[in-house]
Design a protein that fits this description.
The radius of gyration is 26 Å and the shape is elongated. The protein has 274 residues and is mainly alpha-helical. The strands form two sheets. It has a two-stranded antiparallel sheet with strand order 1-2. Strands 3-4 form a two-stranded antiparallel sheet. It is built from ten helices and four strands. The chain has one domain.
Length: 274
C-alpha cells in the first residue's frame, strides 16, 4: 500500500499590527500609526522649510545700504546706519533660533499630519514676512512717532512667530503616533513648555516699546540671543522620561534580531517616508 504523507497546515501569518521592521531590519513593537492618507514623511517638509529659512535670512542683508549723499564722509555714513545693523542682527538671530527649534522638532518626528503641516506653513509665512518689519524699524527708529509704531509692530510679528512655534510643538506632543520610537510625548511637551517664557518676554518688551522704543529694540535682540544660546539637540535632561521606553526597546531589540525586509524608514520600505 502507498503511504500518505500527513497534511501539514501552513503556519498562520502573524497579525499585521503585531510588529514592524525598523532601522537595520530590527523588528519592533507596533505603535499606533495614522492611515497613509492622513500622514506624510518629513523629508520634503524639512527641505521646503529649510529653503524658506535660507531665503528669508538672505533677504535681510539686502536692506543694508548707505545713502550716496553720505559718501563724502563714508565712515560716518556707515556708522549712521546702526538701526539697520540692529534690525539685521536681531532678525538674523531670531530666524536662526527658529530654524534650530524647527530642526529639533522635526528630528523627533517620524511623520507629519495635516495639522502640523498647516502650522508649519503658517510659521514659514510669518518668518518670510519678517524682513518687512525689520526694514520699517531701521527706517523709522529716529522719528519719535514712527519708531514707536514700527517697534511695536515688529514685536507683534515676533510674538506671533513665537506663538505659532509653541503651537507646533504642542501639536507634536499631542500626536504621539507621529514621533520617533525613542521619543515620548512627555519629552516633547517639556520642550514646548520651555519655549513659553519667550511669549512672556516678547509681551513685556512690546509694552516697553510704547514708552521706550529704542530700548525695546535692543530687548528684542537680547531675546534672540538667548533663544540661540538655549537651542539644543537631544538633551538628556529633557529626554529623561524616554529612558524606560528606550530600555524596553533595547530588550526587545536584543530578543529579536531577525529581519525579512526593509523597514518603514529604510529605502524600499514605507513610500511615504520621503
Amino acid at each position: 500500500m502507498w503511504s500518505r504523507e500527513p497534511h501539514v497546515h501552513p503556519p498562520h501569518p502573524p497579525p499585521a499590527a503585531a510588529s514592524r521592521i525598523g532601522r537595520r531590519g530590527i523588528r519592533r513593537p507596533e505603535r499606533s500609526v495614522p492611515a497613509v492618507s492622513e500622514r506624510w514623511g518629513t523629508g520634503r517638509t524639512e527641505a521646503f522649510s529649510d529653503g524658506v529659512f535660507a531665503i528669508a535670512i538672505t533677504l535681510l542683508v539686502l536692506e543694508l545700504s548707505v545713502p550716496e549723499e553720505s559718501f563724502g564722509n563714508l565712515w560716518r555714513g556707515i556708522a549712521e546706519q546702526w538701526p539697520s545693523y540692529l534690525g539685521y542682527a536681531t532678525s538674523f538671530l531670531t530666524i536662526g533660533g527658529i530654524w534650530l527649534s524647527h530642526h529639533a522638532l522635526f528630528g523627533r518626528l517620524r511623520y507629519v499630519n495635516r495639522q502640523i503641516m498647516q502650522l508649519n506653513l503658517l510659521w514659514l509665512m510669518m518668518v518670510s514676512f519678517l524682513p518687512f518689519p525689520t526694514r520699517l524699524v531701521a527706517e523709522a527708529i529716529n522719528e519719535a512717532e514712527a519708531e514707536r509704531a514700527a517697534v511695536v509692530f515688529y514685536g507683534l510679528v515676533l510674538l506671533a512667530i513665537s506663538a505659532i512655534g509653541a503651537a507646533l510643538w504642542r501639536a507634536a506632543a499631542h500626536s504621539p503616533e507621529l514621533l520617533e520610537d525613542e521619543v515620548s510625548p512627555e519629552a516633547v511637551a517639556r520642550i514646548a513648555r520651555a519655549a513659553a517664557p519667550s511669549l512672556g518676554f516678547y509681551t513685556v518688551v512690546i509694552l516697553v516699546a510704547i514708552l521706550l522704543p529704542q530700548i525695546a529694540a535692543f530687548g528684542y535682540l537680547v531675546i534672540a540671543v538667548i533663544a540661540v544660546l538655549r537651542a539644543r539637540g537631544e538633551d538628556p535632561n529633557l529626554l529623561e522620561v524616554d529612558k524606560p521606553a528606550r530600555r524596553r526597546w533595547g530588550r526587545h531589540r536584543g530578543a529579536d534580531q531577525a529581519s525579512d525586509g526593509p523597514g518603514l524608514d529604510e529605502p524600499g520600505g514605507d513610500p511615504t517616508r520621503s
